[in-house]
Amino acid sequence: MILAKVRASALPGIFLILFLLASVGVAQTPARATLVRIQVTARKYTFNPEVITVNAGGRVELIITAVDRDHGITIPAFGVKQYLKKGVPTTVSFIASKPGSFAFHCSVFCGMGHRHMKGKLVVRAR
């Protein structure tokens, strides 16, 4: 009889512990990031579009086609560095994890105007 009373009084505590453990698990599960796909072209000395705007926390896929020759793209803030072969659409994926304005540029020398081949990634806060 005493054992039955102990078991019955322990049930609310056990349920509380299970609820807390389940809540912690839910809190640690990342929400599915929104996917944004953007078509970009790279040609001598320019990216089109030059300014790319996305929301913070979203997954970004840039589908980039080098039109006139081989190029590259580097977005240092998000660890992106990709070679772009002429005529081959290349997908670059990353999570826009922090809001702000971030520079990107061509990472493959493409002529005298190479240093001007750059753009801006704008990540808006949610």
Verbal overview:
This protein is α/β, with parallel strands linked by helices. The protein has 2 domains: 1-30; 35-124, Immunoglobulin-like. It has 1 helix and 9 strands, in the order αβββββββββ. The strands form 3 sheets. The protein has a 4-stranded mixed β-sheet with strand order 2-1-4-7, with no helix packed on it. A 3-stranded mixed β-sheet has the order 3-9-8, with no helix packed on it. A two-stranded antiparallel sheet has the order 5-6. A hairpin with a 2-residue loop joins β1 and β2. The longest helix has 27 residues, at 2-28. The protein is elongated. 16% of the residues are buried.
What's the quick description here?
It contains 1 helix and 9 strands, in the order αβββββββββ. The longest helix is centred in the N-terminal third of the chain and has 27 residues, at 2-28. Residues 15-21 and 23-30 have low confidence and may be disordered.
Spell out the blueprint of helices and strands.
Layout: H1 2-28, E1 35-43, E2 46-48, E3 51-55, E4 59-66, E5 71-75, E6 80-84, E7 90-95, E8 100-105, E9 118-124
Parallel strand pairs: 1-4, 3-9
Antiparallel strand pairs: 1-2, 4-7, 5-6, 8-9
Q: What CATH architecture of the largest domain would you give?
A: Sandwich
Based on helices, strands and strand pairing, what is the structural class? alpha/beta
SSE arrangement, N to C: HEEEEEEEEE
User: What is the rounded distance between the termini?
Assistant: 57 Å
- Supply the number of helical segments: 1
How many β strands by DSSP?
9
Largest beta-sheet characterization? 4 strands, mixed
Query: In percent, how helical is the residue content?
Result: 10-25%
Query: How many domains?
Result: 2
**What's the CATH class label of the largest domain?**
Mainly Beta
Calculate Rg over CA atoms: 25 Å
Strand content: 35-45%
Low-confidence segments, given as residue ranges, are: 15-21, 23-30
Strand order of the largest sheet: 2-1-4-7
Mean pLDDT: 84
